[in-house]
C-alpha cells in the first residue's frame, strides 16, 4: 500500500525541485510525454525547464531540439497547452533552456557586432514572449566571452522585467577556482558583476564534472563563498541519460544532509524528466515525488543549522575532492595524464570530444 504524500510547502518556500523536459514524446513516435502528473500527483515540483532552444543560421532559424516550433505546431500543441496549465492553475514556473551540448547559439550572440546580436536575439525574445515562458536557463557549453554573457543577461532583464527568471547551468567544476569547464568565462566574476540578476545556478554534478554521491562537492562549492540558495545540485535521473546517476537510497541521505546543513539549500534539478527513475517512461513523476518528500515538506525548526562560510573565493579546500565518476575508460584518462595533463583536464577534454583520445590530446595541446 502506498503511503500518502505529506503536506508540501507552498511554491516559493523551501528548496526548489526542477526538471528539465527535453524529450517531449515517448520513443518510436509515441504520444507526448505529459507534464500534468507533476501537479496531479502532488509531487512538489516548483520549476520545469523546457529544453532545448537552438539559434541556427540564418537569423530567425530557431529550433526546439530539432524542429521549428512555429511550423510544427501540432507536434508541440500538448507541450504548450500543458505549460500554460501548470503556470496558471498551479503556479509552477516554466522556463526555457538555451543551448546545451549542441553548440552555436552563444557563438552567434557573442562578439562586438551589435547588429549581429540583434539579428539572432530578437527572434529568441519573440519566441519567449509568445509562449509566455517565465524565464530562461543559459546552458553555455561552448567558448563564450564574459561580456557576451553579460550583454545577454542585461538585455533579457531590460526586455522582460524584474520577475523574469534568469539562471545558468554550469558544470559543477565551473564553480570551483582554476578548474576546466565548458563555458569559457569565469563564473566567479560573473556572479560578482551580475549576481543580482541571476536567480540561481543549475550546477551539473554528473558526467565527470561533479559528484552527487556525497556532500563533498557541494560543501566545497559553498565553502568557497557561493550562497547555498543559489546552488542547485544537478542530478542524472536515469543512467541512460549520462554518467553519474546515484541510486535513491544513497541520494536520499545526501539530500537530507544538505537540507539540514544549509537552511537555504537551493534544491535539485533532474536531467531529464521523461524516463526518470524509479518510474521510468511510464511513471517519470515518481522521481519528483521522491524529491518532494525530502525537500518540499516542512522541517522541524530544531533541524536547521546555520551556514558558516568556510573560505573566501580562490582559497583551496582543506581536503582534496575525490575525482568525480566519469564514463571514460581508465586507460584513456591515463593516456592523457601521461602527456602531462591533470585528471580533470583529461576528463574535460574527453567530454568535449565524445571520448576520442586523439582528438582530446589535440585539444589539450592546442590550449
Q: Can you walk through the features of this model?
A:
The structure is a single chain. This protein is 35% helix and 14% strand. By secondary structure, the protein is α/β, with parallel strands linked by helices. An 8-stranded parallel β-barrel has the order 1-2-4-5-6-7-8-9, surrounded by 5 helices. Helix 8 runs parallel beside helix 9, helix 10 packs across helix 11 and helix 11 crosses helix 12. The longest helix has 18 residues. The radius of gyration is 20 Å and the shape is globular. The protein starts with 15 loop residues before the first strand and ends with a helix. About 3% of the residues have low confidence.
User: In order across it, which strands form the biggest sheet?
Assistant: 1-2-4-5-6-7-8-9
Instruction: Specify the helix fraction band.
Output: 25-40%
Range of strand content? 5-15%
Radius of gyration: 20 Å
Low-confidence stretches: 307-318
Coarse structural class: alpha/beta
Largest sheet features: 8 strands, parallel, barrel
Give the key terms.
single chain, 367 residues, alpha/beta, 8-stranded parallel barrel, 9 strands
Amino acid at each position: 500500500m502506498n503511503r500518502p504524500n505529506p503536506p508540501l510547502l507552498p511554491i516559493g518556500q523551501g528548496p526548489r525541485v526542477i526538471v528539465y523536459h527535453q524529450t517531449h514524446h515517448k520513443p518510436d513516435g509515441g504520444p507526448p510525454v505529459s507534464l500534468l502528473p507533476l501537479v496531479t500527483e502532488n509531487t512538489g515540483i516548483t520549476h520545469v525547464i523546457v529544453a532545448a532552444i537552438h539559434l541556427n543560421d540564418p537569423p530567425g532559424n530557431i529550433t526546439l531540439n530539432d524542429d521549428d516550433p512555429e511550423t510544427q505546431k501540432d507536434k508541440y500543441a500538448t507541450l504548450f497547452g500543458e505549460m500554460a496549465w501548470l503556470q496558471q492553475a498551479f503556479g509552477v514556473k516554466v522556463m526555457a533552456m538555451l543551448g546545451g551540448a549542441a553548440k552555436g547559439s552563444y557563438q552567434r550572440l557573442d562578439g562586438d557586432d551589435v547588429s549581429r546580436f540583434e539579428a539572432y536575439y530578437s527572434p529568441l525574445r519573440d519566441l519567449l514572449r509568445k509562449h509566455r515562458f517565465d524565464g530562461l536557463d543559459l546552458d553555455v557549453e561552448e567558448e563564450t566571452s564574459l561580456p557576451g554573457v553579460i550583454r545577454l543577461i542585461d538585455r533579457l532583464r531590460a526586455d522582460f522585467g524584474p520577475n523574469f527568471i534568469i539562471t545558468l547551468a554550469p558544470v559543477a567544476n565551473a564553480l570551483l577556482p582554476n578548474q576546466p569547464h565548458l563555458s569559457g568565462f569565469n563564473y566567479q566574476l560573473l556572479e560578482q558583476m551580475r549576481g543580482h540578476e541571476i536567480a540561481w545556478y543549475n550546477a551539473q554534478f554528473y558526467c565527470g564534472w561533479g559528484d552527487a554521491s556525497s556532500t563533498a562537492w557541494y560543501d566545497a562549492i559553498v565553502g568557497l563563498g557561493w550562497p547555498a540558495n543559489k546552488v542547485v545540485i544537478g542530478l542524472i535521473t536515469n543512467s541512460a541519460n549520462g554518467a553519474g546517476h546515484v541510486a535513491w537510497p544513497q541520494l536520499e541521505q545526501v539530500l537530507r544532509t544538505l537540507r539540514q546543513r544549509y537552511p537555504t539549500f537551493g534544491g535539485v534539478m533532474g536531467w531529464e524528466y521523461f524516463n526518470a527513475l524509479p518510474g521510468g517512461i511510464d511513471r517519470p513523476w515518481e522521481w519528483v515525488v521522491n524529491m518532494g518528500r525530502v525537500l518540499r515538506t516542512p522541517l522541524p525548526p530544531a533541524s536547521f543549522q546555520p551556514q558558516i562560510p568556510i573560505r573566501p573565493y580562490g582559497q583551496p579546500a582543506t581536503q582534496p575532492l575525490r575525482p568525480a565518476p566519469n564514463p571514460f575508460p581508465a586507460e584513456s584518462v591515463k593516456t592523457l595524464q601521461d602527456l602531462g595533463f591533470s585528471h580533470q583536464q583529461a576528463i574535460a577534454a574527453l567530454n568535449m570530444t565524445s571520448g576520442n583520445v586523439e582528438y582530446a590530446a589535440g585539444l589539450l595541446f592546442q590550449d
